[in-house]
Design a protein that fits this description.
The strands form 2 sheets. A 6-stranded mixed β-sheet has the order 8-7-9-6-5-10, sandwiched between helices. The protein is of the alpha/beta class and 326 residues long. The protein has helices spanning 2-9, 23-35, 48-55, 72-83, 90-96, 100-109, 124-135, 176-193, 214-229, 241-244, 271-283, 310-324; strands at residues 13-17, 38-43, 62-64, 115-118, 145-151, 162-166, 199-203, 234-239, 265-267, 288-295, 301-303. The protein contains 12 helices and 11 strands. The chain has 2 domains: 2-136, 3-Layer(aba) Sandwich (Rossmann fold); 145-283, Isocitrate/Isopropylmalate dehydrogenase-like (Rossmann fold, 3-Layer(aba) Sandwich), CATH 3.40.50.
Length: 326
């Protein structure tokens, strides 16, 4: 993670922290202020937010109250214009902008900030709605994808111990077409975050046809479609997880040979498997997980994981800076 922090320091950004009243958010903001990694805007009700920020020793950060902020009408108008064809009325847009998560997302969408962090009190489903509706997709993206960064203490795994897992939160039961979209967005995130060419493994309970099952068939179909859509991408499957993390998959070289490492992007057939794998890496393997990062959106949006500490939050800011870097 130290390498990622150093790389992010070269791309300072302006981030919105949606849950400004939370102690962990305030502690993380203070740590970030000391590190000088980002300009920060905290959202919450005034004057309570001012009192709590002062109590934590925060100075020089921007504090905004969505309920009374002078930009709320402009942002509500932008949201109405963006979503009026989906049934959003001016009244509903104004109501949404009173919520810090939506206010922050529209700030980012309108170019008032570079990215948004949330998740200490807001569930992932709410972050997905705000990201999808307020920020929208990047021009090259077909789907919003939840990607988790896992950093393992064993540097022989992934990219010096770092790897991306997908989809860990957005698409519950993807079809082959969606698996291709997930793979492409995870590959883009790999180039941004790991500064490396992606080596994508489509992971399954089946290994190269060892299991005749609809789930394995879906993965095989997705791999064929992925190779047709992005022939330059190093992708292989369907593979057992342990084989995917090795250079050789037990029965021959993988698509990324002669690389000395295994996959740095792990693509799962469904959210259940991806989420369990991510949690197992932390619980049993001593890894640290970040995100999910909502890849495919027009601007960086990170959902903080459960139990996020101040340092963990600061590291998410580094990831947001890398996601937004040119």
């Amino acid at each position: 993670m130290e390498r990622l922090r150093w790389q992010a320091a070269a791309h300072p950004c302006h981030l919105v922290l949606a849950e400004g009243l939370e102690d962990r958010m305030l502690e993380g903001a203070l740590l970030l202020q000391r590190q000088g990694m980002a300009k920060l805007t905290l959202l919450g009700p005034l004057p309570e937010l001012e009192i709590r920020a002062s109590a934590h020793g925060l100075k020089g950060v921007t504090l905004r109250d969505p309920a009374s902020d002078e930009d709320r009408f402009e942002l509500a108008g932008a949201y109405f214009e963006k979503r009026s064809n989906r049934g959003i009325t001016p009244e509903r847009a104004q109501e949404a902008l009173g919520h810090p998560l939506w206010f922050g997302a529209l700030m980012v969408e309108q170019g008032m900030a570079d990215g948004l962090l949330s998740g200490l009190t807001h569930p992932l489903a709410e972050s997905l709605r705000a990201g999808g509706q307020a920020l929208g997709l990047a021009p090259q993206a077909r789907a919003m994808v939840a990607v988790s960064l896992v950093i393992h203490p064993d540097p022989s795994l992934g990219q010096e111990g770092a790897m991306l897992l997908a989809d860990t939160g957005a698409i519950v039961d993807p079809d082959p077409f969606q698996l291709v979209d997930i793979a492409l967005e995870a590959a883009r995130a790999c180039r941004k975050l790991l500064q490396a060419e992606p080596r994508v493994a489509l992971v399954s309970a089946s290994h190269r046809g060892s299991l005749d099952h609809p789930g394995a068939d879906k993965v095989r179909q997705a791999l064929a479609m992925l190779k047709a859509r992005a022939p330059e991408l190093k992708a292989d499957g369907e593979l057992h997880l342990d084989a995917a993390l090795r250079r050789h998959a037990g029965d021959g070289s993988t698509a990324w040979a002669p690389s000395a490492a295994g996959a740095n992007v792990l693509l799962f057939a469904g959210l259940d498997a991806a989420d369990v794998a991510c949690r197992a890496a932390v619980a049993f393997g001593g890894a640290v997980a970040f995100g999910p990062l909502l890849a495919g959106l027009a601007r960086p949006f990170l959902h903080l994981p459960e139990g996020c500490t101040a340092q963990h939050l600061a590291d998410h800011v580094a990831l947001a800076a890398l996601m937004g870097a040119p």
